[in-house]
């Protein structure tokens, strides 16, 4: 199973989600691509992702992940817990430090959902934090220095021992993401 994990206030219907689905459909049609719409509650999101991983492992499937932003934070935890390999795109390193600015009402532009970010959502993220990357060979990290949402240097520090592509400029969406999909497929060893 290839699990695509979107970021905060995003969706599988984001540009990266759609480009990923199209690429997998065209170039790796036998891959089981799963792109869930994550619940806004962080514990519920991780419970869903864990359940998907356990179902795939029960079927004898190998695990691969593509995680963007907050999805990269989740993917890091999942790789350490369940195994597999992950590609992280401008990953959030310590999202609980950022959640203060998002407390209160939110609107997801992809789903139309209105919801509240509560202090407990922020606190729950601490449960999924990894102090260090135990298996750096399992990660390929894509960073752009122009990320206007996250400081790329945080990810550069945390994932310094992992395979990495660092590009100058760009933005949080990772400009030119589609051009990286063949390298992503090779790293994940997609059939």
From TrEMBL:
Pfam entry (one): UPF0227
Signal peptide coordinates: none
InterPro entries: AB_hydrolase_fold, UPF0227/Esterase_YqiA
SUPFAM superfamilies: alpha/beta-Hydrolases
Protein name as catalogued: Esterase YqiA
Organism: Shewanella cyperi
């Amino acid at each position: 199973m290839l699990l695509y994990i979107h970021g905060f206030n995003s969706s599988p219907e984001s540009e990266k989600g759609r480009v990923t689905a199209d690429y997998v459909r065209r170039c790796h049609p036998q891959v089981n691509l799963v792109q869930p719409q994550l619940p806004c509650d962080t514990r519920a999101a991780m419970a869903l992702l864990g359940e998907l991983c356990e179902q795939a492992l029960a079927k004898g499937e190998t695990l691969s992940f593509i995680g963007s932003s907050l999805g990269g934070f989740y993917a890091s935890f999942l790789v350490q817990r369940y195994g597999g390999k992950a590609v992280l795109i401008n990953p959030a390193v310590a999202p609980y430090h950022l959640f203060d600015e998002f407390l209160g009402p939110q609107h997801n532009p992809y789903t139309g959902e209105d919801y509240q970010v509560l202090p407990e959502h922020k606190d729950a993220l601490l449960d999924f934090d990894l102090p260090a990357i135990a298996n750096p060979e399992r990660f390929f990290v894509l960073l752009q220095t122009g990320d206007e949402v996250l400081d790329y240097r945080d990810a550069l520090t945390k994932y310094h021992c992992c395979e990495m592509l660092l590009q100058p400029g760009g933005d949080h969406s990772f400009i030119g993401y589609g051009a990286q999909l063949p390298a992503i497929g090779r790293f994940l060893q997609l059939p």
